[in-house]
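Q:
My hope is that you can spare some time for a protein that puzzles me. I hope you can help me see how the letters and the C-alpha cells relate. Thank you; the sequence and its C-alpha cells follow:
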Amino acid sequence: MSDRTIENYIEAQYRDLLVNDLLNPEFAELYTHFTNEKIKKIFSALHKQFEVSFKAMNQRLPTGESGGHFLAQDSRDLIWAVDMALSLHRTLKNSEFRFDIEKYYFEVLTKCQSFLKKSGGSPLPPNMATVDVPYLIPIFISGLNLNIERSVKSIQSSMQIIGEGSYAKVFKCRDEFFDRHFAVKKALDSLDHKELERFKREFEEMKKLSSPYVLEVFKYDIDKNQYYMELMDFTLDKYISTNNGKLSRDQRVSLVRQILRGFSYLHSKGLLHRDISPKNVLVRIYDDVIVAKISDFGLVKTPNSSLTSVNTEMKGYFNDPVLRTEGWANFEMTHEMYALTMLIYFIMTGRTDVSKISDQKTKMFVFGGLTQDRTQRYKDIGELTAAFNEMIR
C-alpha cells in the first residue's frame, strides 16, 4: 500500500470508532510512544474493549471438561475488536506505522478467532484458562525492528561515543539505509569472562522483553561484543537536572507512571532490575510527550540465575545501604522498592536528600519505601503504585 492509502485506512478505522461512540481514552497513557494520534486513540479503544470482553469471558468459563457459553452480544463485541486488531496488524506491517501485538495477547486473540461465533453466542473450549485482563501492560507494542545486517558498514562508519560505564561504551550511529540514528553498546576489551557473560545476558534478557517502557534492543554482534539498540535523548538524571525548574507536576507524574508500568511488567516476568538509578532510565522527547524507558539490565536478577554471586559488587546509588552488610545475593523485592521510592522522589522533586521533607504526604510515601523495618515497606509494585496515587491526590 502507498503512504496515502495507509493513512486513509487508519482514518477509516478511526471514523468507524468515532461514529459508533467507541473511542475511550482510559488506556491512552499506555500508547504515548506511538506518534500518530489516531492510532493512539484506536489502540486505547481496542484495549478497553479487550478489558471488558476478557472480564466477561472469565465469568463464563467452563469448569473442567463441562461446557461454557459466551453470550451473543459479548461474542460479537469481541469478534469486532479481534478482527480490527489483527487487520491493523496485517495492513500496517510494512509501513512506518507497523506494530506488534504482545505475544500472550496475540495467542489469545488468535485462539478467540477459532471459537467465536457471530450469532447465538459462542461455546467456550473445555478447560479454557482464565484470560489475564490487561490493566497495566500494553497489548500493542511499537514494531520498530531494524534489519541491522543490511547496513552494518554504514553504521560502523558513523560511530560517535556518547557515554561510558564500568562495562561498556555507548556510541551514537547513523544508519544510511534507514536514515535514522540509533545506539551501539560495546563491551570494554578489559572485561573478564564472567563480566562478558553478564554483558551478553543483559542483551538476551532485554531481547525477551516487549514493553514501551523498556529500551528496545535489536541484534548482538558476537564478533565485536556489542549490540544495537534504540537511541534515546537523555538519561533521566540529566533530563531532570537540566529541566528541574521547568517541568510541570503533570509531566513528572507522567514519567513516574511510565516507570511504574515498566517495573510492573518486569516484575510480572520474575525479574528484579537491581541497578535502579536516574542514569539507568532513559528519556526520549517527542513533540507532544516525554517517554521514559528502563535500561541497563547488566545486574538483573532472574529466576535460577547462576551469574549472581555473593561477591558481586553492589551498584546503583539508590540501592538500600543494608545490602553492603547483608550481601548482594540476598537482594529481594523490598530492596527494589527502596530504590524505586528514591527514584520517584527524585523525579517529583529533583532532589535526592530525603532528610528534610516538609510535605506530609511526601514524607509518608518516602517512609513506606525506605523504612529500615522491611516488614513495613511496600511489598510490591502494586502497593508502591497505590501509595504514589495517594501522595499525588
About this structure: Residues 306-312 have pLDDT under 50 and may be disordered.
